[in-house]
């Protein structure tokens, strides 16, 4: 365990913040600045392409890509973030697996509240299938709100009668807009990044007055996961959202779904982005890459 590394990151994330709620522009600018300092693997290739009704950033490894796709959904509370802010995570999955990734630039609240994000990610998956990619060669992956989208897009795909992807990988997923997990209280003050007030502030923008008690908003407490593909849920113990993952894992087990609940002690929300400066980040990304390598079946390219 890297006590000194974790302590430095915790201190960095606890830098003083404005006491008043920030504007959307301030939230977006602050997150962009934070994520610009995260390490992106050298040699990966990126370009923006259309995918359904939205742009997506195609991320490819330095050498020839293996014949499968990670459909990636970035984090940011459904209000901020982009494929670019998630490039450390997406790029590291690509460089570690050799698979290409498509990172969806889905619409954000408050301009586009629920269900816009799910509509966009489902449309991207449909377009990927229509292009000829077999579902056995597709995995959904995402961080934070995007980790939640990896789950809810799978729900929406099942409801739409689409074949499900081969696997789901979710880093610190947000899975409960009702905010009823015990960790919302037990981790208050321990989480260096979020407070209940900050989550409520952005959550209200996405909800836009809608009831959070529905599966596409709170799958950890309401979703029927029957028929879901294998899932890997990675989360840290210093997170308000810890119990989003623990409760979804319990629902998955009850539905006879293969699930790996991967909990790392003493690390913050989406700790995987601290690759290169936190040993646990690199180790977790290695485990995620191994999981994807075991679950994805490369398409026949002959």
User: Looking at the chains present, what oligomeric state does this protein adopt?
Assistant: single chain
Distance between the termini: 46 Å
Q: Which CATH first-tier class would you pick?
A: Alpha Beta
SSE run: HHEEEHEHEHEHHHEHEH
Low-confidence stretches: none
How many separate domains?
1
Principal-axis shape equals globular
| Radius of gyration, in angstroms, nearest whole number | 18 Å
Write out the CATH superfamily name: Alpha/Beta hydrolase fold, catalytic domain
Structural class: alpha/beta
Strand content: 15-25%
Order of the strands making up the biggest sheet: 1-2-4-3-5-6-7-8
Instruction: Please report the total strand number as a whole number.
Output: 8
- So, CATH architecture? 3-Layer(aba) Sandwich
Per the CATH scheme, the topology name is Rossmann fold
Biggest β-sheet description: 8 strands, mixed
Number of helices: 10
Describe the structure.
The protein has 302 residues and is of the alpha/beta class. The protein has one domain: 3-Layer(aba) Sandwich (Rossmann fold), CATH 3.40.50.1820. The protein contains ten helices and eight strands. An eight-stranded mixed sheet has the order 1-2-4-3-5-6-7-8, with helices on both faces. Helix 9 links the parallel strand 7 and strand 8. It is globular and about 60 Å long. It starts with a helix and ends in a 7-residue tail after the last helix.
């Amino acid at each position: 365990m890297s006590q000194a590394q974790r302590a430095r990151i915790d201190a960095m994330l606890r830098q003083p913040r404005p006491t008043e709620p920030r504007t959307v522009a301030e939230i977006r600018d602050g997150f962009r600045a934070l994520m610009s300092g995260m390490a992106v693997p050298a040699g990966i290739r990126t370009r923006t392409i259309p995918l359904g009704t939205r742009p997506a950033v195609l991320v490819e490894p330095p050498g020839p890509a293996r014949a499968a796709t990670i459909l990636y959904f970035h984090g940011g509370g459904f209000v901020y973030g982009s494929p670019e802010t998630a490039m450390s995570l997406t790029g590291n999955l690509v460089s570690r697996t050799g698979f290409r990734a498509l990172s969806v630039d889905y619409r954000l609240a408050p301009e586009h509240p629920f269900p816009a994000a799910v509509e966009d990610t489902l449309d991207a998956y449909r377009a990927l299938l229509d292009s000829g990619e077999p579902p056995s060669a597709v995995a959904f992956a995402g961080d934070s709100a995007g980790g939640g989208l990896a789950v809810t897009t799978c729900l929406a795909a099942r409801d739409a009668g689409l074949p499900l992807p081969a696997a789901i990988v979710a880093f610190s997923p947000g899975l409960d807009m009702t905010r009823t997990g015990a960790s919302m209280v037990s981790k208050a003050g321990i989480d260096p990044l979020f407070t209940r007030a900050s989550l409520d502030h952005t959550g209200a923008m996405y909800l836009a007055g809608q009831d959070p008690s529905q599966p596409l908003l709170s799958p950890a407490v309401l979703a029927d996961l029957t028929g879901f593909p294998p899932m890997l849920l990675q989360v840290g113990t210093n997170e308000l959202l810890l119990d989003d993952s623990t409760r979804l894992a319990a629902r998955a087990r009850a539905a006879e779904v293969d699930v790996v609940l991967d909990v790392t002690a003493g690390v913050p929300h989406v700790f995987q982005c601290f690759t290169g400066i936190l040993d646990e980040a690199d180790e977790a990304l290695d485990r995620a890459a191994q999981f994807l390598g075991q679950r994805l079946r490369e398409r026949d390219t002959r």
